[in-house]
Design goal:
heterodimer; A: alpha/beta; nine-stranded mixed β-sheet; seven-stranded mixed β-sheet; 36 strands; 43% helix; B: alpha/beta; 12 helices; elongated; initiation factor (chain A)
Chain lengths: 723, 455
Amino acid sequence: MGAQKKSATARVSEDQEELARNPLQAILLADSFATTFRPITLERPKVLLPLVNIPMIDYTLAWLESAGVEEVFVFCCAHSKQVIDYLESSRWSSQPNFSVTTIESHNSISAGDALRLIYERNVIHGDFVLISGDTVSNMSLTQVLQEHKERRKKDANAIMTMVVKKSKPSPITQQSRLGTDELFMAINPVTKQLLCYEDKAEHSKGFISLDKTLIADNPSIILHNDKQDCYIDVCSQEVLSLFTDNFDYQHLRRHFVKGLLVDDIMGYKIFTHEIHSSYAARIDNFRSYDTISKDIIQRWTYPFVPDILCGSSAIKVERQGTYRASDVTLSRSAHIGSFTFIGQGTKIGNDTKISHSVVGEGCTIGSNVTIEGSYIWNNVTIEDGCQLRHAIVCDGVIMKSGAVLQPGVILSFKVVVGQQFVVPAYSKVSLLQQPTQQDSDEELEYADNTSGTGELRYKLNGDIAADLSETAYELGTGGVGYIWSVFEGAQDEEWKHSVAPIPKDKLVKLMLDKDEDEEQLTQDGNVLSASGELKADSDDNGSEDDDNADSRDDYGFFEKEVEATFLRAVHENVKVDHAVLEVNALRLSYNMASVDCAGAIFYSMMKLAVESPHHSASELHRNAADIITKWVKLLKSFLHDIDEEIEVILKFEEMCLESAKEFAALFPQVLHLLYDKEILQEDAILRWADEKEGADESDKVFLKSSEKFVQWLKEAEEEDEDD
Amino acid sequence: MDFQVVVLAGGNSKNLTPLISKDVPKPLLPVANRPVLYYVLHQLRQSNLKDLIVVVEGEDAALHVGGWISKTFVDGLHVEIAAVPEDIGTAGALRAISHHLTAKDILVVSGDLVSDVPPGAVAATHRRHDAAVTAMLCSVPVSGSLESGSSGGKDKTRKPGRYNIIGLDPCKQFLLHIATGSEIEKDSRLQKHILHAVGQMEIRSDLMDAHMYAFKRSVLQEVLDQKDTFQSLKQDIVPYLVRSQLKSEALLNGISQAEENGNEKLSSPNNQVLVSKILANASTPSFHEPYSMEPDGSAQTRKTHKCCAYIASSSSYCVRLNSIQAFMDINRDVTGEADHLLSDNIIGPSPKLGTKTTVGPHCMLGEGSEMGDKCQVKRSVIGRHCRIGSHVKIVNSVVMNHVTIGDGCIIQGSVVCSNVQLQERVVLKDCLVGAGFVVTMGNEYKGESLARKEK
């Protein structure tokens, strides 16, 4: 560090010149390419959702402006029109030293696509800041930019600097605060180079794997579980071209960062910059929406707080963190608790209690209403006696009298909740129907994002009345809207990401999950010791050697894949050459030898023969013969030498004993058949016979049954020699 | 201090043939004219740790070692010699003498450790944290002498056992992960639950487990009893304790799901009480504490134990004599840069030197040795009662006791054991000559190991 600083002062003037030449640029992704904010994001882009009554993107832009960024390229995809319209009408279009340019796309489905498009536009000329439009921060970029530049000068491969921040100390709050998945990062403490990045870590795994080369190269590595990724990156131009080179990079972290870390050919490096006192966080889900809103109200993000950002509209900050616009109509008996925001033109009735909540502009709230920890956007009508706890209520919603929202409810735009209706916890309600093919799978998450947004919306607008009449009862009498069903699998996760505080039992569950990890670990642990050059521990016979288990598992998967490929080839009449190619591809991806291929293919063939209809052994034999005749070339292409042929025989034996006992009787015939078709050479069969000679009696069943054939082969061979 | 010290002075380490023999068991292998065991015992005496059990493999060796100790350390050390069968491993050796252990804490030191790290400091660290185990870690020694510098790179792949991968907490007090032996060559697997509890873990590959451990006796005996397949302290017991530190209850009682073994279950009830007793007196606040609390505040707590690390400062000297290379290195260092290890060394009456014979710095000549004319000795150790002829050149070598070297011999980078006879004009380069061997006149050897055939 000392050396860096010295050189920094020496080069300051140089740097300033550079800065003068290239205005600092930023790419702001105004689309998160995720579905966490559905159903709200079906109708409005995420970046325009109000965060304490101000659209998220305003926080991001205000911060970029204050941090000295001069040119921002806003990439918009979903609802791009809304974003562009908003930006044009906002103050950002007319700032003197801060230009905001929009880049529109209709077919990007990921951050990777977005960056590829931006690369094609050729608008980025130097280092740039890459963020998404849902980032709230007040950090200064000077230092991180400086560090990045210095590093670049020394090492052209240092192409990215990620901003990280220490998260909360307790292991439970680390995850529960922002609702993000746990994140493990390995960082070199001296150079701050990022060595390993593991998010979405599978819970089932009780350990983290660090590559041995990392350890060999770095005498000291710090593995962090207590850092939070702020999703603020300072990148060099190469990052864009890398996305273009690797057209399969989609996700910034999962593909790009991990891709760079794994790839050791190009040698690109990523570094980290830790911020300590400034604020930086990204709104990734409803939970972080809730947390960050609270942080804003409690002024952690200063100067980006509502009263300053709004400027003219005169929001007053009162005691206990209460924000109130000037023209709020408040009943005398209404009680506004601490950390609450009340927007302009909102009317609040008698005996209503509001605390820890945000109420937007032009809302009408009746009497005896209880609002706790909720986010009510603009022009919402809440009639008398309603109760809201930890809910998000979007624009134009009407809650009829006595309606109750249980914790974690999301009411999307213009939903009407019927009288006395209780919306169950964690439900998401929208006027739009839930897109049918939903899946928590991440690829689908990308795929259906764009299709789900545009078309669906306008198609539904036409016959919305008809649709709604059928299902109106869902929200009680007079209610309008669909309650989205929670699809399976995500059900467990719902509480993690909702605005509602995590119930106690779930916290316990979170800890118990870890306990489960530990149970796993017992096995892992024992395995560790077993691999540490000693005989397996007496109590871990079950998991004696997991390396073997892994490879066995792998083989199992591989075999299944091969079988599927083969069956497809059979049913769709794929050419043999193509099937060979496919199997070869599988072989490479599973890192198998061609012996394994031969075994797996033969297995699939025989299985098919058994599964095709037959009534007698002879029919079965005919089935097998047909299949073998037809696919002999496929099998042959993996039989390069005798070992592989022997493997086929062994595989067949195994099948006869286990999965396809029907073949047991046919063993010699099929063996003969394979010989006739020149799949097996006589050497292979003889070698197999020799090997089996010394085996147990039980193991020799098939050898005996095919004794005649083997004998015949031997004689034939002798005759050959005689010739 | 209620500490008992176990010095594991076993081993007919195969790495050291032909240097060690029946007459010279490993603990008595001379380093700068003193048995290697001396260095450990000396340090223990300095730290006022005087209650020792020296464990030696094999009865004969035990007699030899016992004889030497009673001759050398007459003052103050209370030493018991225990002989154990060969090849039962370090854990096996401890198991064999387990009934002799009575003190609250046990310090286990390897007898081949040449170090200036005070064992007392390790013991104090152990006590301060009330740890279940404390391991002494030191910087990885710079291996290879000037001449064998090329072997540095290869060394790593050949002897990975000397290196460890170690995980520490941010204050570098607790040991969170340790990998030894073949695990180092694999990708490291770090346990998430420990990471969860600590937040961040520093992974170091430049530290070495110096094989000096302080154990809580009850924990040690517990583990020795229950895990009867554990053979090695370094590879089994310490890693086991480290990885089970946050869930010691489940493991020490053998009631975890993973262990479906019948006998384990049988033994669990009586141990439960014992273990909870052992662990009840944890006092220093650390990451273990919050972890041991249930999130809902219920009374049920998790059992944890602490694994600590004592990290020797990088300037201290710490090497284990477990290979020929290490033997050469130690001999060189003890006479050279680490000569403070010999602080109270009694240098015998100056040996007789012939005319024009030069003995360079960092050399040592044992008492009663004689050298002829025009000899040259550089960076070498020469033992007692050696007779060295004229025109002999000895560089970077170790010559033990009662060696006869004829005129005109050249010895480079070699080890010549006791009672060896080198006749005239023998040239040895990078050779090992076993005890009692006779090298006939004019022979030249390079990189060979010469030893008498065992009768």
